[in-house]
Structures are given as C-alpha cells and as structure tokens.
Amino acid sequence: MPETPAAPDNPRPDEAPLAPDDLRSGFVRTPDGIHLYWRAVGRGPVMALCNGVGVGADVFWKYLTAHYRERYTVVLWDYRGHGRSDRGLDPVNTDVRIERHADDLALVLGAVGGGPAVLVGHSMGCQVALETWHRHPDRVRALVLALGSAGRTLETFFDQPFSLPLIRFLHRLSVALGPLSNVLVRPFLESPVPWFLATRFTLVDPIYAQLEDMRPYMDHLVTLDFRFFTRAVLALQEHDAWPWLPEIDVPVLVIAAENDKFTPMWCSRRIVELVPGAELLVLADASHAALIEQPETIHHRVDRFLAERLGETP
Predict the structure, then answer these.
(1) Would residue 5 count as lying in a domain?
(2) 227: left (phi over 0), alpha (psi -120 to 50) or beta
(3) Residue 23's closest CA among 2, 1, 38?
(4) Given a cut of 90, is residue 131 above it in pLDDT?
(5) Mind listing the pLDDT tens digit for each residue in 78-112?
(6) Residue 201 parent element (H or E)
(7) Can you tell me the distance from the alpha carbon of 199 to that of 204, in angstroms, rounded to the nearest whole number?
(8) Any domain includes 241
(9) Residue 296 covered by a domain
(10) Is the dihedral of CA 192, 194, 197, 199 positive or negative?
(11) 304-312: long-range contacts at Cβ-Cβ below 8 A with a sequence spacing of 24 or more?
(12) pLDDT of residue 161
C-alpha cells in the first residue's frame, strides 16, 4: 500500500474523458489504491508497450513510438512505483509481482479503449506481456517479445549461477540498511562509472548505443528506492510462464540479440520452440539495449510480422 495519503474516490482531472486526439493521457486507480500513469499517442489499433524493470515509459520507446504513431494508438505506461505512477510506495511490501503488473496493464487498456492490443515487451516487459495474455486473453491480439525471457529470469541472468544468490543478497542488505542503501547507491548511479562499465563490458553496444539515449534510464533509475528495485528484480524470478507457452494462440514475434548479456539468446530460441507458430528475429552485434541501437531493423521486421500475421498494411 502507498505511504502517501489515499486518493479520493472521484477521478483526478487528468482521468476525465478526453476528446479523441493524437495525444491522450490519464491515470487509472488499482484495487489496492495505486494510481498508474498512461499516455496514448497516435490513432488506430492499440499497441501497448511494456517496459523493463526500473525503466520509465519515456526511456527506450521513442523510436518505436515515432515509427508507429501514424498507424497505431501507441500506449506507454508506468509500472507502479515507476515514472509518473504513484511513487513513495512501501519499498519492501508493495506487490510488484508480474501477475500484478499484468492486471495493472489490463486496467490501463480498459481506460484507453480501442479493443485488443498488440503487446510489445522489452526485458521484464516480455513476462508482463505473456502474463497479460494468460490472465486477460481478450485484451491481446499479438505479442512482440524483445530481449526477454518467459520466467525464472535470474537463473539465466548473465548465464551465471551466481546471479540469483547475488540479487537475493543485495535485497537483504538493502532492507537491512534501510534508506541508507539509497545514500550509498545513488552517487554511483549519478557518476560516469555506469556508462563506462556498460560500454567497456559491452552491456550496451559501444558503437550504436548513444549516451543521450541511455541517460534517461540512469536518471530514472536513480529516483527509485534501491529496496524497491531489488524486490522488483526478484519478482522476475518468481514468475514462470514456461509451462503454458504451448497454449498461446495469438501471433508471436520474438526478438533476440547476439550480444545480450542479460537474456541469453537460447532463452529466445526456446520460447520460439514452445509457442506454436512463433517467429524469431536475431539482431547481429546488438545488446540488451537493441531498441535504441537498431531501431530501423526492428521496425522493418515488426512491420512485416503485423502485415503477414494480422493483415495490417505497413
């Protein structure tokens, strides 16, 4: 539950119905009293974008939004505790399970209207998109799963066995330190060191990734309570969609990157093997940040997928 006072039952001014236009925004209130921010850009069938953990709605989607806004209503939204959605939530006990995010997205799609959506997920957003189909199949037309897994993610993070115990240790430590954990972590995140390490160890492509595209991610991450962030990361491990992937009955495109250190490419291949009729795009030399490294290639392949599987003209 949020630490901030509960909102009144009457809607906020920006929740009020807006006249159809190329830009709408608003908030939806969840059953546990949290306000979620959403923004709809463009006109046409709905395409909803699902972020990675710790990522705000305005970080990695600018190229895709610009490409599709002429043909789709592109929906960007912030997870609970992220971006413009309610902040100051209990960093230890707030429900940040993937199942909760999926239910939150269903509320957002209900507020936006326009019928079932094409869900595009990045990183954790792939799990959110999959779970939304599982829990709310009437809300989903197709899935585009970019650079993410289907669950138990920390077991494959960096393809190293130490990833899960390390994250568990960091979460326990941050909870023990309380607010002091933020005092210790934020100076590091605000320094040039993360960008240096990311390019030095090719966590992002040192040639195609631009600092100006990554800076919004760091600027947003530094605003999150470290206890909240590590709890949200652990939630990736608690979710498991692998057993029911063969039941998926909507078109699915999976996007993988050769140099993705966070999601090994074999995870993407396994999703394609399990989901009937799923298709795979492999991006050469790309990293986990491929959305901002190779946007034109991604857009071209998604255009073809939507044309061939949904009959929509590029």
Answers:
(1) no
(2) alpha
(3) 38
(4) yes
(5) 999 999 999 999 999 999 999 999 999 999 999 99
(6) none
(7) 6
(8) yes
(9) yes
(10) negative
(11) 305/142, 305/144, 305/251, 305/253, 305/279, 306/118, 306/142, 309/142, 309/251, 309/253, 310/118, 310/141, 310/142, 310/251, 312/45, 312/71
(12) 87
Both tokens of 149, joined, read 């897994």
C-alpha separations of 181 from 44, 55, 189, 224, 229 in Å: 45, 19, 12, 11, 11
Is 81 a member of any domain? yes
Residue-wise pLDDT for 221-277, tens only, equals 999 999 999 999 999 999 999 999 999 999 999 999 999 999 999 999 999 999 999
Question: Per DSSP, what are the bridge partners of residue 124?
Answer: none
Residue that has been written with the tokens 């009457």 in this structure: 10
Which CATH number do you get for residue 249?
3.40.50.1820
Q: Which two tokens stand for residue 127?
A: 């799990």
As separate numbers, helices (DSSP H) first and strands (DSSP E) second, the chain gives 11, 8
At which residue do the structure tokens 């239910």 appear?
A: 103
Q: Indicate the number of domains in the chain.
A: 1
pTM of full prediction above 0.85 = yes
Structure tokens at 143: 């899935």
The three-point CA angle 226-288-265 to 5° equals 120
Which residue range is the domain that position 44 belongs to? 17-310
Query: Tokens 């986990």 map to which residue?
Result: 288
pLDDT digits (tens, 9 = 90+) for 164-198: 999 999 999 999 999 999 999 999 999 999 999 99
Residue type, 290: A
3-state helix, strand, coil in the chain (%, to 5): 45, 15, 40
